[in-house]
Each structure stands twice: as C-alpha cells, then as structure tokens.
Amino acid sequence: MVSRRRPTMKDVAEHANVSISTVSYVLNDSGPVAAERRNRVLDAIRLLDYSPNESARSLKRRSASTVAMVVPDLTNQFFAMVAEGVHRAASAVDVLVVLVLPDATELPEESQAKLLRSQRVDGVIYLSGTGSMPAAIYDLARSGPVVLVDEQIPGRDLPAVVCDSRRGGREVAAHVLAQDHRRLAVVGGPPALWTAQQRLAGYREAFAGAGIDPDSVPVFAGDYRQESGYAAATEILSRPESERPTALLCANDLMAIGAMQCLRDNGLSVPGDMSVAGFDDQPISSMLTPALTSVRQPAYDMGHRAARVLFDLLEGREPDTTGPLPAEVRIRDSVGPPKEL
Amino acid sequence: MVSRRRPTMKDVAEHANVSISTVSYVLNDSGPVAAERRNRVLDAIRLLDYSPNESARSLKRRSASTVAMVVPDLTNQFFAMVAEGVHRAASAVDVLVVLVLPDATELPEESQAKLLRSQRVDGVIYLSGTGSMPAAIYDLARSGPVVLVDEQIPGRDLPAVVCDSRRGGREVAAHVLAQDHRRLAVVGGPPALWTAQQRLAGYREAFAGAGIDPDSVPVFAGDYRQESGYAAATEILSRPESERPTALLCANDLMAIGAMQCLRDNGLSVPGDMSVAGFDDQPISSMLTPALTSVRQPAYDMGHRAARVLFDLLEGREPDTTGPLPAEVRIRDSVGPPKEL
DNA sequence: TTGTATGCGTTATCAC
DNA sequence: GTGATAACGCATACAA
C-alpha cells in the first residue's frame, strides 16, 4: 500500500480544466456553474476518488461538525441506548460523535473543556448519570454549548432533556401500593443526583396519596450500583421479619438486581416473600427471573432529542423545548401481593 | 454568552512579545527557547485561556488524531466493553474516538470509507460482530489502516485482534461432556462469521475427543440474536422427549438466554431438564437464574489491544502481533448432569 | 458565469 | 536562539 497523496481540489480542477473555485462551487452549491462544466467536475471527482479534506473545511468554516458525548459507562444499557439516539440524530445531519468516557487519570471536566476549546468538537452532550458532577459543568458550558441528558442543575438553567421521573416514580409506587403493600422501603440513588431526587419525590407522592406518611418509609442510600442494592437488602434482612418491608422500591434496575440477588442468597423468593421494583427498564431486566417490574425511560428518544437541541443551539435556532418525555411503568413479575395476605 | 473569538497563536505571541514561531516552539518543544521567554509565553497562554486549534493542526500535520470505531450495536455489552478498551487506549495518547454505528439509511462501508478518505479519522477499528461484512472491508482498508476485532477474513490478512474462540468452544463443550451428557445440540451463529465458525469448530473437537461423532450432533443455525435462540429451542422441543438433547451449546449468550426463556415457557427447568451453555459471558449472564455457564472473552483487552495495533500501524511501527487472547470458561449453574442419571 | 487572490491557525524551513 | 514566511486544502469576496 504505497499510500499516494490524496487528491485535492486543485487536482480536480486541473483534471476538469476549470478553476479551483468552480470545483468549490459544485461541491457546495455555493455558486452558479454551467451544466457542462459541472459534469466535468463531477467526473473528475469520481475519477480521482476525491473527497474534501475535512480538516481544511473545519478550519475555514470554524466548525468541526463534530460533537462530544460524555457518558459515565457504556456497559449500562441505558447509556448505550441514549448514545445510539445521539448517534442517529447526528449522522442524519452528517455530524460526527466522539465518545468521551471518564478517564480515571485526569479531572474529567478539564479534559472535556480542553476538547471544546480546541474546536475539535462544537458542542457537548452530557450524561452525568452516576457520579456527582457539580458546578464544573457550568464552567464547561462557558466554552461552548452543552446539553444535559437525564439531569438538571437546579438554579442554573442549562438546556436539558429529561423524562418525567417523578411521575414514573409515583406510578410504580402506586402500582406496588395497589397490591396492598403497607410496609415499604426505598433504596434510593445518590442524593445529589437529580434523577434520584425526582424518583424519590415521586415515591413519596404516591405514599401520601395512599395515606402513608412518606417520612415513615425508610430510605436506604444507594449509589445506583448493584452492590449497593445488595447491601441495602442485607441491611433490611438483618431486621426481624415482622418489621421488614414487604416491598422494595429501588431507584434503578441495577440496585434492584442486587437486592434480588441478596434475597435469593438468603433463601427468600421474589415476589413471594418480598416484592421488588426497579427503575430504568434495562433490556436485561425483562430477562430476569422473575422479570423485573420497572419504569421505562425512552433512552433512545432522549438521546435523539438532546442531539437535536444541541444542533439547534449550534445553528442559532430556538431549541425545541417541549416538556419532559414520558416514563412508563412496565408491570412484570417481581411485584406481587404481600406475604401476609 | 457573547462567544468572543477564541485566541490564536498570534494573540499569544503579541501578549508575550515574541514571534509566532516561538509560541509554536514552546507548544511542541520543537525548538530551543530561552527560559525567560518560555515563561512569558506560558503565562500568556494561561492568561488568554488559549488552546490550539486542532483543525489547523490536523491540516498541517495531515493527521486528525482521531480514529473511528465501528460497532454493530452498543447495547450489546460485549461491544460496549470493547469500545471502552479502545477508548482508554486512545485517550492515553490523546486520540479521539468517533463512534460509527450502522445506519440503516445507507451502505455502511461506503460512509465509513468516505470518513476515512475525508481525513477526519486516521484509521478504523472494525467490529463486525454480527452481520455479514464481506470483502467490502477490504475496500475500506485501501483508504487507510483498518484493524478487525473478534473477526478474521480468511485469505486476506488484515490485522486483527481476536481471542481463542476455538479453544473456548472446545473447553465449554468439554465441561458439558464432563457432566456425562451424550446427546447434545448446538445453536450456532451466522455461518459466515469467523467467530461462529471457530466456536463450532471448538465444540466439534471436544465431541471428537469424547468419542462422539461430531457430525451426529445437530446444529441449529442462529443469528446471534435472542429470538433465534428461542426459535431453535422451540424446534428442539417439538421432538419427542426421548430424542431431545440433554444439553444445548449456544454460540453466544443472547441465544442461550432466548433458549432458556423458551424452556421456561414450556415448563422445563434449567439445568434440571436441560443444560444450557453460552458464549461471551456478558455481564448480565451472571445475573440470570440460573446463572449462565459461558465463555469469557477479554472484551476490554481486545479493544485496548486493537487500538494499540492501529496506532502502531499509523506511526509506521511494527504492530504487536502476539497471538490470540485467552477465552476462559466460566462455570455457573446452567449446566448440570443430564436428567436420566 | 468564472477565475484570482486572500485568509483560516499551525507547523516547519530557513535565514538572521 | 529567534523570527519572517511559505505551505496545508478549502471557501469566498471581488474582479473579470
């Protein structure tokens, strides 16, 4: 593979016996050009297998046609699906998506800000998901447009695409309560995270609606990871059976899975001995035994819309600012009537 | 946000009272510069919050410091983990990774080739995974370096990072046989895919080693998706029980999961009534009930190594060409002794 | 309609 | 050690 020099516009122009600008005109429809000459150019392009050098284009246009997508963890299928939505929206307008995963070796927001400033990317889609992510984002946003997904920063209004987590929380909780559970417990997410707050708020609304004092329901602090679900369940099982909750509301599927593992390891059955509900509706959740009752978030759509919002911002359009997307309860087998009945 | 023009080297030079070249020298260590002036430059850079325009750099250097990573589907956790490995290796050398997912709307290899030729990316990491992908890749490889992951094209020798699927197949099969199963069946992957061929070849070696004629073992053609596992199991269950296999070797986890669902739907227990083994060891597989016996592929390492190979190629180094990575059997609960015993 | 010339921000060559 | 200056490949204002 002798890797010959790639053809440039100049080569094309020479082959077609026209000037460079003419080539540019046909490439971008940016000027009038006679049909016959246009064809000559097109032929030359095909012949030489020419394609424009995007670095030069970016330099000239001051835009890289590229966005960064920050996700905490690709193996989480929720993030993966958001990523697919982003990718799809981007490739529809010929924009590249560069992947940014937190790199243990450096401060994440610093490297992202550098990326933005270097003009290798025009904007950022930010999925905090897990982890803290405080005002640092706001710094980031000074270097260029940033769109948040499934997250909101109270006070500052950064553009964000979210779904109605509070309502989703209210509805799963209501579903559980409708099975006549009266003693519940919550395994919550990181208290600093917006999603965790919303989901919890939703649960509490449902409790109140069912005549249960929200403050009487114990909340175990988790971190959205499987281990923390296991740990919370362990703690719950350390109590005498008569004081245990009969149903567990977990703020995400991973923790629900951890809790279910713990219950199984201790010889309890789900939902026979204890009901468990999750949140996220990861694809895997429906494959479990029992299949997990959860709340589906439209991950793909959220990613897609976030990308659209970012593009609107980049092109000075007013972003589509319709409300949160719906989150729907998926009723499955992990929630049943309480044992006592 | 009034989005002022970003500072350029020229601005830095003026602030520091030096020439542009001096700034360039300190930025790249590409020339000698007196300590005192170097500091002036550094200060100016900090003051102006300057960072170099990478489009201009790419243009000049004829390299984008960016690679493309083609994956069929991010929600498959194997691919997600490969992607993480690639990302890590890339960010260690300050290379960006752009995500490429097959876009239903156009021929995949065409858009990728365009990407390569446009010099927005310097090379490609290609994960065919599922789907056919024939000689088209080879065309791609003429536009620039391409490294295959978990795939090989017989005949042509494109650089590829694989793991020892044949051995992995042999070893799971041996594990199953060691439980005294004698009537087995295989749910294979797409026959055109290298991995599917290797895994099957491994199974057959084990059969032969156990005194079973490999040709006597029925192979159901799957496509690596869950549904095809379900379908294969359905077909198997249509036979009289005395002719059914007592163990199912599935060429990937997804199909194993599908098969297990089918068995459950028909009231059969795993491994009580039939044993099932997978391949890939997706994170979810250990969370199933029963946990799936599978073969772990070092996905992250494969991605990491593939990226290293690509960088070697890009910089004219001889790529590290150590053999396939090991694939290890993960023994779990979905394989047990046959029912008859 | 078409061509010429200039600039985008960097790097690198060459004089000084 | 340092600083002009010419590319890099493309887009475009302006002249023809």
From TrEMBL, chains A, B:
Molecular function terms, GO-annotated: DNA-binding transcription factor activity; transcription cis-regulatory region binding
Nucleus recorded as keyword: no
Gene3D superfamilies, sorted: 3.40.50.2300, lambda repressor-like DNA-binding domains (1.10.260.40)
Bias kind Basic and acidic residues: ranges: 329-341
Start and end residues of each stretch annotated as Disordered: 319-341
Region forming the signal peptide: none
Alphabetized UniProt keyword annotations: DNA-binding, Transcription, Transcription regulation
Entry-linked Pfam families: LacI, Peripla_BP_3
Boundaries of every HTH lacI-type domain copy: 7-61
SMART domains linked to this entry: HTH_LACI
InterPro entries recorded: HTH_LacI (IPR000843), LacI/GalR-like_sensor (IPR046335), Lambda_DNA-bd_dom_sf (IPR010982), Peripla_BP_I (IPR028082)
Name listed for the protein in its UniProt record: LacI family transcriptional regulator
